[in-house]
Amino acid sequence: GGPAAPDLEGVTLALRNTTAAGAPGAMVRLTGPAGAATRTVGVQDRATGAAMDPNSRFRIGSVTKTFSGVVLLQLADEGRIGLDRPVNHYLPGLLPDDRITVRHLLTHRSGLADYTNAMFDRTVPGFEAVRNKVFGYHELVNLSLREPRTSEPGAAYAYSNTNFVVVGMLIEKATGHPVAEEYERRIIKPLKLKNTSYVHPRTEIKGPHAHGYLYPDEAGAPPVDSTEQTVSWAQSAGAMISNAADLNTFVSALLGGRLLPARTLDAMLAMTPTDATHTRFYGLGLRRYDLSCGTSVYGHTGTVQGFYTYAFATRDGGRTLAAMANTSNRGQANTALGGTLEAAFCGKQPA
Ligand SMILES: C[C@@H](NC(=O)[C@@H](C)NC(=O)CCCC[C@H](NC(=O)C[NH3+])C(=O)[O-])C(=O)O
Description:
Order of helices and strands: HEEEHHHHHHHHEEEHHEEEEEEEH
Number of helices: 12
Largest sheet: 8 strands, antiparallel
Radius of gyration: 19 Å
Strand content: 15-25%
Shape: globular
Helix content: 25-40%
Number of strands: 13
Bound molecules: glycyl-L-alpha-amino-epsilon-pimelyl-D-alanyl-D-alanine
Strand order of the largest sheet: 2-1-12-11-10-9-8-7
């Protein structure tokens, strides 16, 4: 049957577990037939003590990958990109293997290594080294190509930011515009996402926003304020800024068929299992989680220094969740925040 009514006490409990695990604050915004509901706990600024505000903007990390995926799939629809063409057909000589296709990028099956593993091997030093840096796309791809590939093209799923950096390059090559312009024209303007922006390489978050706090690797060390950064290490793989309401609108519009025609959306949802229990899947630029009550939700997670994000919707876009905790490098807090999904979409467990 369809998803149960949200268990708002359960959502609040999940948020409390998130702050108990070290997040200074957390929030959730749900939408559904009954309208919108928000819950917040803790603070969005440790210095001033300002309470977490459900309207605050924040960095959404890899939820950016779904924005990039939508733009590329629209270009495929317009016949300007072929999903099963080699990437090197559009970007001659970029990759060492002509067998790597556009679809391999969108499904994390290219075999291209993720340069961020080495870049952030030491969490705070790695962050400090890049927080004000501006990378070119080619620089990031070259960092990846210095490492062995993780598989033959198409042979296996392996999450890699490199894939969506190359997606950004394809968008710019096919349109002749910066990705920021394409996000604006194809998604942000049509959906009136007033609190969503792609301002790379600017370091500040304009307007009312939450501060993000990054935990060092050393146990017991206090978190550092990581709010300001270029996110140039991620760009089309993770540099978008948004807020909960805009993420609700975005995932609802995507799954509701307002951004892509039905057959293209179906292609986007062609899933590869990414875990042994086969409850987590990756399609083309978005995830599917199969929840305990039989409801599947579609969207993306995000992890960027100082911010964990979940942005998911039911298959028809009729129910959505956007959740954020203003911390990172704190796995327990991320897991606790993920607990909002069960409370929101599976509701009160039968007594
Ligand atoms: C996994 C996630 N991916 C993303 O959102 C992308 C943009 N982020 C990353 O690859 C994590 C980079 C390191 C974060 C740092 N970790 C470390 O530095 C660990 N040493 C941190 O936790 O802030 C997703 O798809 O959900």
